[in-house]
Amino acid sequence: MIKILGIESSCDETAVAIVADGHQIFANVVSSQIDTHALFGGVVPEVASRLHVQAIGIVLKQALLKAGFSLSEMDAIAVTQGPGLAGCLHIGVQAAKTLSWITGKPLVGVQHILAHIIANRLEQPLQFPLLALVVSGGHSELIYMESPLTYRYLGGTQDDAAGEAFDKSARVLGLPYPGGVSIDKKAKQGTPRYPLPKVHTEKPLDFSFSGIKTAMINLVNQKKQQGTLVIADAAASIQKAIVDQLLEKTRTALEQVAVKQVVLAGGVAANSELRERFAVELAAAGVEVVLPPLYCCTDNAAMVAAAAYDKYLAGDFADLSMAADPSYEL
Question: Domain range for residue 177?
Fold first, then answer.
């Protein structure tokens, strides 16, 4: 049994997990900063970094106690190397390097987006090749994976990511942070009756959400002036427009690559309409659909440890010169 201790600190969650053989979770402890950042309407990098410093030691201790293991029993120490907020990543990387140095255990740097994809393995075995739709506050990407360590970028956002469009739309609607969650809840009470533009991109597998976001802002301002704005209907409309584009692009990708599975990943993978339609509409395309467990949609360390397992087996280790890489790309 290969036990890996994972650390995640790329944004506003401080997390430590212990996972065996890439899928068996013994501990997955997360300290969220969401209540603090809600006061500012979004993540404040300097505040997030300071809170990581305060929490990392406590979360590490809790994870080891919950798992019932000691540091000496770990086979490797893994950490999110990037992408993410520079100061936040630095805290996790320094913690992981320190633990690796103290214990003599191998150090594994993990790419954050890859970890979100591999998190699906915590729910069920992954079958390759697969197609992954990664949707978060900063990413909207289609990734083709031939193996856990072999992948190809098929398309991504030309401007705003889907999560960013959700957050900015929520702000103009006066809905609380985090915006994506608020849009999802409010949309259940409304009807998507407001027309929003259908986006066309130069490359068929790229995304674009800036135009939809701008159209939403203009629509809200117009309806407010007329006194006819129905917030629930506006939320339902923006949610449908975003999900429509995500699914359309994914279906197009499935026509171009042969895969055994199509998986959803990232923070926006928690959106209820996206999950429901992803499961139904893509299964109709004749491919097995895999949805991440809800606890793995938001940032956590179990996905980091799970993704590190394949690199461990391949002997792909980092040394103590490893640094945080805020723009780390697949």
Answer: 127-291
Q: Is residue 322 part of a domain?
A: no
Instruction: Express each pLDDT in 155-193 by its tens digit.
Output: 999 998 898 999 999 999 999 988 899 999 999 999 999
If DSSP codes are grouped into helix, strand and coil, which group holds residue 290?
strand
pLDDT digits (tens, 9 = 90+) for 219-239: 999 999 999 999 999 999 999
Asked if 198 and 172 sit in the same domain, the reply is yes
Tell me the H-state helices in 162-230: 162-172, 179-187, 210-226
Whole-prediction pTM: 0.92
Residue 165 CB-density burial (10 A; 0-12 exposed, 13-18 middle, 19+ buried) = buried
> Are residue 224 and residue 85 in the same domain, yes or no?
no
- Identify the segments of the chain with pLDDT beneath 70: none
245's tokens: 């584009």
Indicate whether 306 and 250 sit together in one domain. no
Looking at the fold, whether 203 and 258 belong to one and the same domain comes out as yes
Angle between helices 179-187 and 231-254 (to 10 degrees): 100
- Burial readout 314-326 (b: 16 or more C-beta within 10 A, e: otherwise): eeebbeeebebbe
Residues 137 and 210 in one domain: yes
319 located within any domain: no
Report d(CA 256, CA 155) in Å as an integer.
Answer: 12
